Amino acid sequence: MAQSIRSVVMRGGTSRAVFLREADLPDDPIERDRIILAVFGSPDRRQIDGIGGADPLTSKLAIIGPPRHDEPRAKGTHLTYTFGQVEIEHPEIDWLSLCGNISSAVGAYAVFEGLVRPVSPTTIVKAFNTNLSRVLTIEVPVENGRPMEAGDYVVPGVPGCGAKILIDFADTAGGATGRLLPTGNPVDRLDVPGFGALEASLVDIGNAHVFVRARDLGLAGTESAAEIDRNSELRALLERIRGAGAVRMGMIPDAERSREDSPATPLLGIVSPPAAYRNDLTGETVAAADVDLVSRLMFMQQMHKTYAGTSTVCTGVASRLPGTLVHEAARPHNRLEVRIGHPAGVIVTETAVEPDGDAFRVHRATLGRTARRIMEGYVFIPDAVAASPGH
């Protein structure tokens, strides 16, 4: 008889994830990953034999566990949260990254599941993220003891509107590499095979990122995701740039193995000054006056259709760091909010950074999202997987 595991499917921002409990999965990492791949139906480009969505934005996983009292940084947290980016066509799971969109759903999930005491109008959820060993502070709107889903907050790329959930990623600065600026430099020169020297800003908050100028790649910066994806030579170059940045940050030893060893992080941002462009989803024009900079993002070897949550906070923080390419591209202003133009509209982050000796301290790096519980029930593991040796 096929094994069943309780699961919850939730949308968080522009992503969707399967939520599983840590206690329901094998302790052995190899067996755990085998079960998870079966849940999603990977490897298969359609994920037809599982509940994955056959797209990087819908092939995501959240494993929720109890608080880790033996971890000093986890003191005072309500739960642990492990994010997994499940590969679609390869039998792999990337455990090195963090998804900001799904982090919003973690907050709502915690209230739904009774992992925190609900407080109206806002319940604060402290989640210890095991990928970065850092704490996320998630503000969940609550009414009558339940997370609110209806509201008037709009997330570009998500139909309709919902209740605003706010996630503060300030504690994740340096989570992947140890420092907000991993090399200590606002700009580094990367030696990219087949291209040559290229200036890049390497920044680590939310997830590690490599930022490059659009003009240095012969781009305007306002191209659609589909336009860039159609250019296979450009996509290959972008992956080589990402790999070179990953090596410079000490994340991987070999740039040529970037897709195999760390396919999700660092993310690659292509930045340019404010400009008008066409919204891919609505066909309307995004005015240059409505953005502080424009960025296009590569995620999992293809262009992001909107903009990743962790990339939002990283781009916002980078825009406050003098000397970075993001700071160079951004419109100067004194507002707390930074407005980032992406293929499907504009995303906003609240950013507060101050100098701290020869480095910087991040006091606020927020992302506003909406989340909704879509399904809860049991997912069945194929007999051949459940009966495998060692399971």
TrEMBL record:
Q: Does the keyword Ribosomal protein apply?
A: no
SUPFAM superfamilies, sorted:
Diaminopimelate epimerase-like (SSF54506)
InterPro entries found in the cross-reference section? PrpF-like
Q: Show the Pfam families listed in the entry.
A: PrpF
The record's keywords, sorted A to Z, are: Isomerase
A molecular function (GO) held by this record is: isomerase activity
What name is this protein filed under? Methylitaconate delta2-delta3-isomerase
Organism whose genome encodes this protein: Enterovirga rhinocerotis
Source species taxonomy: Bacteria, Pseudomonadati, Pseudomonadota, Alphaproteobacteria, Hyphomicrobiales
